[in-house]
Amino acid sequence: MKFFRRLDLFCRVVDNYGDIGICWRLARQLVREHGLEVTLYVDDLASFRRICPPVAPEVERQQLDGVTVRHWRNQDGVYTPDEVADIVIEFFAVDIPPGYIDAMAQCESRPVWFNLEGLTAEEWVEGCHRLSSMQPRGLTKHFFFPGFTEKTGGLLREAALEQQRLQFAPSPFLAQLGLSPAEMAAAKVSLFCYPHAPVSALFEAWQNGGRPIACLVPEGVAADAVRAFTGGEGGAGSVATRGALTVRVLPFVPQPDYDKLLWACDLNFVRGEDSFVRAQWAGKPFIWHIYPQDENLHHKKLRAFLERYAGALPGLADFSLRWNGAAAHGETENWPELWAGLEREAAAATERAAAWQQQMLGNGDLATNMLSFAATLR
Length: 378
Prior knowledge:
Layout (H helix, E strand, L loop, with lengths): L5 E6 L6 H17 L2 E6 L2 H7 L9 E4 L2 E5 L15 E5 L6 H9 L5 E5 L7 H5 L3 E3 L5 E5 L16 H6 L3 H7 L4 H5 L1 E5 L7 H9 L5 E6 L4 H8 L8 E4 L2 E6 L4 H10 L2 E5 L2 H9 L3 E4 L7 H13 L4 H10 L11 H10 L1 H16 L4 H11 L2
Parallel strand pairs: 1-2, 1-5, 2-4, 5-6, 6-8, 9-10, 9-13, 10-12, 13-14
Antiparallel strand pairs: 3-4, 7-8, 11-12
Helix pairs in contact: 6-10, 13-14
């Protein structure tokens, strides 16, 4: 990108792995595919380390995969105009340190300043995407929304991702994770969700079902339900079989291996935003556990996505709503019936996942779209 050389990205971790997961993917892509010098400011290096093991939590500044990572401890600090990048991104409207903003205002050539917002399928996003917001001291901030239409910024996706997926061989990867031949032959489900998901009820339905299922769950996820099922601590390597269900606990894997896990499974339960997007690029059926918000605003976002995605998949839509506690008043949850409805749509859901992926490719990728828009601001 000839207009820009450096980019600073500010990230605060709220949803343990989702925020840093998105920022880390974006930072690496901007370095690898667009040749930018990227500095990632992040406040929680411990969470970062779970998805990127080389991170050293005690180090203030480190170099990882070509990205400069700085521990963003607080809002203090004095910055000079020379330290300000050509493009500055605040992720999810985080407050950039006042000293950094002062330095931005002192720059002879003002940086392009983005507020990169969260992903939603709601229609209002199209009207707010790329809107400018005047700031004190002559600065201007622009809102940039990822999304599912050509009127938004699109979804985060690396250029080589699809080729990597097509070349992926699942059996060696699953064997490396410790799966037995019986587990490999079963329907494979990855499970990543928030603690309030009705996992125990679903386990019971799977256990009493007629189809062998291997559920692969990262360590620490759905911990209470996993401990109850396995009868132990639920640490990585724990495995138990009851009826038709085998639950296997996996170590928390780095991002590239999580992609492989999504590619290797027949159905993926994902949570938040980062794994939600990756499940879409996996081209497999998925169930989204959306990050909870006050006054159930997340239910509105979920319904907006299901309207776009699941119009011909009522079983998937119904299951997704119940999984997120969005059932209509008075309705009861019958998980064997909900699961049966999902299974009946398996073939159609697989076709829909592939078609959706092609539809999303038509919107371009978020990093490229953002840089293209930034170029128009210079």
